[in-house]
Amino acid sequence: MNRAYELMFIVRPDMVEEDLDKLISTLETAVSSTGGTVKSVERMGKRRLAYTVRRFHDGVYVLLTAEGGGGLIHELERRLRVTEPVLKFLTVRIDEEQKRLDKIKKIRDARKKAPPAPAATAEGGETAAVTA
Amino acid sequence: MAEETRATTSGESTPAPSEGPSHGHRPAPRGPRPGGPGGPREGGRKYFRRKKVCKFCVEKIESINYKDVRLLAQFVAESGKIVPRRLTGVCTPHQRRLSSAIKQARNIALLPFAGRAN
User: Fold this and answer.
1) Which of A12, A51, A93, A100 would best serve as a mutation to test chain B binding (most B beta carbons within 10 A)?
2) In this predicted model, what pLDDT tens digit does every residue of A98-121 receive, in sequence order?
């Protein structure tokens, strides 16, 4: 069961850099111990929040992509929930969306090579009508 | 009325239905009206409305991601509400993805739930 997930979380802006490093490394070890792999960790930096969360107007956004089963997410979310400086988190499954995008891209590439066929593809019905 | 707008967005060559002035005084949010001028302008008496097109279909934007705040913000009114399809012209499949993306973005504090209250 291998699924790709994207986990975005916000930590409070006054958190020390080292603490954030520590938090990320504990999350990484949690991922590997539950049989998953960390694909990437991206720090998106400090951003203004759209609304106040626990009286904070800013937050440090971190984006973590990982692969693994559902138990992995269960563990990660539990950890984030008990970690006090984490303001918010959101997990999104991304593999199915990626699959869909790849499929569309494939169809589009095939169409580019071959002479444009007026066949309406899935979800392309709208575009087909426009180009027709 | 909804039927009529659907007919125009589906790309058929039917002219925009003249729905009368009901559209005219609608409080238009800063939703995207792709392209140039629309509505009665430049001194013309006649009611001329551009055919609305789905931005995602035209520009071939496939991925509607919650992280792309700049894209999503075009479809969110000043008050924080999602702008309805009949005003933006977004097609149904794309509006479905768009609304879920906006809701995800709200959840992670990238977009407001309501207005600029603070």
Assistant:
1) A51
2) 888 889 889 888 888 776 555 545
Residue A68: strand pairing partners: A3
* Domain containing residue A123: 97-131
SS3 per residue for A31-95: HHHCCCEEEEEEEEEEEEEEEEECCEEEEEEEEEEEEECHHHHHHHHHHHHHCCCEEEEEEEECH
What predicted TM-score, i.e. pTM, was given to this entire model? 0.67
3-state SS, chain B, equals: CHHHHHHHHCCCCCCCCCCHHHCCCCCCCCCCCCCCCCCCCCCCCCCCCCCCCCHHHHCCCCCCCCCCHHHHHCCECCCCCECCHHHHCCCHHHHHHHHHHHHHHHHCCCCCCCCCCC
The CATH homologous superfamily to which domain B2-10+34-107 belongs is Ribosomal protein S18 (4.10.640.10)
Same domain, residue pair A26 and A78: yes
Number of inter-chain CB pairs under 8 A, A vs B: 56
Whole-angstrom distance, CA of residue A130 vs CA of residue B52: 12
Burial A23-32 (b: 16+ CB within 10 A, else e): bbeebbebbe
Nearest residue in B to A59, CA atom: B109
Residue-wise pLDDT for B49-68, tens only, equals: 677 788 888 888 888 889 88
Are B84 and B23 in contact, with CB atoms under 8 Å apart? no
The complex scores an ipTM of 0.73
Is the same domain home to A61 and A85? yes
